[in-house]
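Marked as duplicate of an earlier ticket. Keeping the data here for the record.
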Amino acid sequence: MARLHSPSTDVLFDRASDKVYAQLRRMIIALELAPGTVLVEGTLVEQLGCGRTPLREAIQRLADDDLVVALPRRAVSVADITVPALQQLYEARWELEPALGRLAAERITFAELDALDSILASGPPDSSTNQYDLTEWDMAFHHAIGRAAENRYLLMAFERLQGVAQRLLVFAYRRGAFVPPTLDEHRAILHGLRARDTGLVAERLEEHIRNAKDRILRTL
């Protein structure tokens, strides 16, 4: 199965905080740490087998990702999942991803088209047993389009939203069988990319993002 390329996995890091960041990021996105959970430093140091400095550095990066929020008295909690936050996230995706799609339709290589096809051909993991892996499969498709656009600033903006978007998908996949429409919509986007039809790709991405938002809203 194709794996998600995120800011935490594209580069091999040496710093201890990078491993802690990757571990905590997965735990938050997978809802192993539930929204609203207060992060207790001593507990996490023991659980993750890390020092306090790497943990604090990782938590700061997670705050930059909007996955944790500061509380009074220097406490930190996992960010809540709310309807207003969802609305704002999908407003941003509605503007950003069609722009990436239009550029990708102009610039995508045959190898990148084949890679997208491989993601879809691999098939989604079983959503009833592992929602996190399912969202990895889902977001890998979107991130591959972002890379194919060959615009580092737009890609950075997408990556800034990626963790929050993926956590919402985990939340939604736990509450509804959304895989068949998602797969069909991805195939329609790939068809537009193969045709190098910028307008069609943007239209299909807009439709896909709107449908994804509606599916998630029905679970809240």
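See parent ticket for discussion. Residues 83-217 form a domain with the Four Helix Bundle (Hemerythrin (Met), subunit A) fold (CATH 1.20.120.530).
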